[in-house]
Specification:
This protein is an all-alpha fold and about 170 residues long. The protein has helices at about 10-15, 15-35, 40-50, 60-70, 75-80, 95-110, 115-130, 135-165. The longest helix is centred in the C-terminal third of the chain and has 34 residues, at about 135-165. The N and C termini lie far apart (about 60 Å).
């Protein structure tokens, strides 16, 4: 692929959160390929980075994403699968699964990430890491998830708000 000229989008790609998302995709992809728990792999990488200065430290947002996806994997996967047309989650390329998992988790849980940013970042990652068809596929699935994300966030907030009352 020919190198593209530097523009505002190129600078965006170099952002800290973008790099954190990309590393989270890498970790989720590797965890699935090795059939290990993503949170355990994350802990292993954090430990390695503290022992070996040649290994880049794990960004806090990468940590948030990997742990968040690992903790909510069943709901995230169920959501993705419900919007696949004539596909099964297991048949998608593993990198697309990782990208979609991160984006869906952000749409449901990352209150500081506008939905359009979560979708745009996922599409950018698909452009960088996956097949030519993946960006439009990822965009199509996430375009449907965006529609239900506000209700999911509201339900989660209501559940959190009711917990202290239940414990009292």
């Amino acid at each position: 692929m020919a190198e593209q000229p530097v523009d505002k989008k190129s600078f965006k790609k170099l952002g800290t959160r973008h790099k954190a998302r990309r590393r989270a995709v890498d970790l989720l992809f590797e965890a699935e390929a090795r059939d290990v728990d993503p949170a355990d792999l994350l802990d292993e990488r954090v430990d390695l980075a503290t022992r070996d200065q040649a290994v880049a430290p794990v960004h806090a947002y990468t940590h948030t994403l990997v742990e968040g996806v690992a903790d909510d994997l069943d709901r995230v996967d169920g959501t993705i699968e419900s919007y696949l047309k004539d596909w099964e989650l297991s048949r998608l390329p593993a990198v697309d699964r990782a990208i979609l998992r991160i984006a869906v988790w952000e749409l449901f849980h990352a209150n500081d990430v506008p939905p359009v940013v979560a979708v745009d970042e996922a599409v950018e990652l698909a452009k960088e890491l996956s097949t030519d068809d993946s960006p439009s596929f990822v965009n199509g699935v996430l375009g449907q998830v965006v529609l239900v994300a506000p209700q999911v966030r509201a339900a989660a907030a209501a559940t959190r708000a009711s917990r202290p009352e239940a414990d009292a």
